[in-house]
Amino acid sequence: MSGRQLLIVAALAAVGVLAWDLLRPSPPTEAPAPAPAARAPAAAPTSAPPSAAPLLPGQVKLGPNFLRPPVSTTVTASHLSRDFGNATAWKPIYERLRNTAEGNTPEGQYFLYRILRACATVADRKGGGQPRQQNLAQIEERRMQIASNYAEGDPRRVQRLEAYDKATADQCAGLSGVTVTEAELAQLLRGALDGGDPKARAWQIEQDMWNERRASNTPGRAGATLSDSQFAGLQEAFNSRDPEAIAIAGRVLANSFRDITVRIGPDGEPIENRAFMNAALLLACEYGYPCGENNARVLNACAYQGHCGVASLPDYLFYYGSSPYDAQLLDRYRGILRQAVDTGNWSAISIDRSNRSPNLPSYPYPGPMGGR
Q: Exposed (0-12), middle (13-18) or buried (19+): which is 292, by Cβ within 10 Å?
């Protein structure tokens, strides 16, 4: 092939390549990545409510507390019941009730019984009738230990010492010279029971339950039991909307029984004891139970554990006393209890006598006088 022919062939090839580039379909263009969703503007900061979560070194702020009582809650507790529950000393209430018309009511007799049972010398009590005395030296030693862990002026030091002083205050101060007999105590409680006071009824069920346990001599893992009438009495305590009666009834049902399982919800699962007791307390708070800054658990947690900065039991349980799971569970239990009280339908809470609950309480039982 001549040189001229080679040039012609090369030219034709170049034209072909150019024509292919011009005429071939364009490759599909890649879709652009979607723009990131616009971030919602941050809410304007608001001032914290008086009972907001405590912010101490190393802590983070948590979400809103859904355990607080609803705004629409109707308080049913009497003035006397609230005064008794919030008192750090009982002498003024004793003087208020002794030989007065208020002290002669069923509720007045119940609180007189509580005060005298705890504070008075029972002249004919077996084993000695002296009330238990506080060990002032131990109290002062523990106070100094708490104080020594903080520098002067540290707000945590002030919080803990104030809580400690309230938690260790002698509620029986000034009543050491009062003397009663067992018969007089029994008469006060009987008067409250005959008058239909729901607190007295729940209290009596609790006493009878423990008396039966002591007398049963059941081998193995001993525990209390409840009769059908006692369970019905505890339901009535809830239905009364009397906050202290609710607190006592919840405390009783949260025990580990030797032959009973307390079941809850549509599937009838065994209750988790601690969550159930706390749920009953939260329901009692709604009706006026003393759940504020003088509540015994709130004071003790701040004084002895440094869990300060909360002004109510619902805040303590949410920010300190419960895991996220426990908080949701006890809120669910509270809802079931509230519905039972509102409707009178207790089908969602029952006792099963077929066997003992597989769940064990995760707390020491405080006894009939446990806490204020």
A: middle
Residues in the chain: 372
Provide DSSP, 267-310: TTEEPPHHHHHHHHHHHHHHTT-S-STT-HHHHHHHHHH---S-
pLDDT score recorded for residue 15? 40
- Are the C-beta atoms of residues 370 and 251 closer than 8 Å to each other? yes
What contacts 45, CB < 8 A, 6 or more positions away? none
Spatial neighbors of 76 by CB under 8 A, at least 6 apart, are: 241, 242, 243, 287, 288
* DSSP code for 57: T
Res. 283: pLDDT tops 60: yes
The pTM score is 0.78
What are the pLDDT digits (tens) for 68-126?
988 777 899 999 999 999 998 999 999 999 999 999 999 999 999 999 999 999 988 77
Q: How does strand 261-264 pair with strand 269-270? A: antiparallel
Cβ-proximal residues to 276 (8 Å cutoff; 6+ apart), any chain: 250, 253, 254, 262, 264, 330, 333
CA distance 276 to 280: 6
Q: For residues 192 and 127, what is the distance between their CA atoms, to the nearest angstrom?
A: 27
What would the pLDDT profile of 206-247 be if each residue is shown by its tens digit?
A: 999 999 988 887 665 668 899 999 999 999 999 999 999 999
The DSSP letter of residue 65 is -
Cα atoms found within 13 Å of the Cα of residue 82, Cβ hemisphere only: 12
Please, where are the H alpha helices in the chain?
3-23, 79-86, 91-97, 106-119, 136-148, 155-167, 182-194, 198-216, 228-239, 243-253, 273-286, 296-305, 313-316, 324-343
Residues 6+ apart with CB under 8 A from 152: none
Q: How many beta carbons lie within 10 A of that of residue 287, not counting itself?
A: 22
